[in-house]
Amino acid sequence: MTAHHQTFHVAVVGGGLVGKSAALALAQAGLRVALVAQPAAPRPADLPFDARIYALSASSQALLERLRIWQALDHDRLAPVYDMRVFGDALAELHFSAFQSAVPQLAWIAESSLIEQALDAALRFQPQVSWLDTRAQGLDVKPDAACLALANGQVLEADLVVGADGAHSWVRAQIGAHVTRRDYRQTGVVANFKAEKPHGETAYQWFVEGEIVALLPLPDSHVSLVWSAQADHARELLALAPAQLEAAVEQVTHGRLGELECVGPAHGFPLARQSVDRLIAPRVALVGDAAHLIHPLAGQGMNLGLRDVAALADVMAKKEPFRDLGDLVLLRRYERARREDIGALTLATDGLQRMFSVPGTLARSVRNAGMAFVGAQPFVKRWLVSAALG
């Protein structure tokens, strides 16, 4: 062993909420963890809210509580969702209620930077974690260990490598996993606004001519826009002056929250569905966007990734003493535990996106009739809420 050679139980490649949660969860289980990732960029001090907003389900809240991250968050910056109203592209409407579903809330709306900074602080005080601010550039899987070469010259040996490095995962490429991708030819346009009318802790969603517009509640009568727009239209929206964007959002949401005031610049990100033929390889497991990518219309992408983390940590905690962490038998348990959840949510979000993209009067009538039918079925709505909560 040289001065540049270190040994760990697990090497997590990639930061973000999923990678850092994975590193913390595995470290709290008593494992020595190397986190190969960059620290979170601070939220600009002149903006009231981060541009990246997530709707966290009950399963995500439970994981963050287990990691003692939820307790460390500034809860004045969190917004509960007690109701959700979904409007079709005709007259259909769906209403989901936390009260009617007998749950405390449907989701929590939280800024990415709020959670990531709490994770950063916890990781820096976690003695089982070595945080390496560099990138991986070589992976050599041997029978007894995986060797990870880093750009700073270090070499790590680990029983298990966790790929949490996003939709364009380098780790995934190293194991030769086959990726199936569908480009939606849409861009998610996100921006934050101050609303004239109170949102009442309600999330709104409109299906409009093949596009999807959502307003998510934030503290102090603010809302977060997620507009899944056709690529050309998205470019137009992103080029608008703040007053023009305010008018466009007010129009498409029928003035539901009155006048809107931009409180930060709009940003865009491409939308696609992505799945892989396997989540594992010898001594390697994929989590988060490295393992799956879904349409944001249900706001479940981050929740899906955090459920990956919870499942992986659970499998590792329950392993037999004679198995090491990279044992394929162990990793197959993780893959089996995640396949149904990932497959069902991918199918549901892709199917909804396709359904509302079909033009024509007949298609519009059929999908809105379907929405009306679901809206009249309390048991179906409670099942949908239960599935979304994870």
CATH class of the largest domain: Alpha Beta
CATH topology of the largest domain: FAD/NAD(P)-binding domain
N-to-C order of helices and strands: EHEEHEEEEHEEEEHEEEEHHEEEEEHHHH
Count of DSSP helices? 10
CATH homologous superfamily placement of the largest domain: FAD/NAD(P)-binding domain
Tell me the fraction of residues in β-strands, as a range.
Answer: 25-35%
What gross morphology would you assign? globular
Which structural category fits the helices and strands?
alpha+beta
Question: If you compute it from the alpha carbons, what radius of gyration comes out, rounded to the nearest whole angstrom?
Answer: 22 Å
How many beta strands in the DSSP annotation?
Answer: 20
Spatial gap, N to C terminus: 44 Å
Characterize the main sheet: 9 strands, mixed
Organism: Trinickia dinghuensis
InterPro entries: FAD-bd, FAD/NAD-bd_sf, Ubi_Hdrlase_CS, UbiH/COQ6, UbiH/COQ6_monooxygenase
Keywords: FAD, Flavoprotein, Monooxygenase, Oxidoreductase, Ubiquinone
Cofactor: FAD
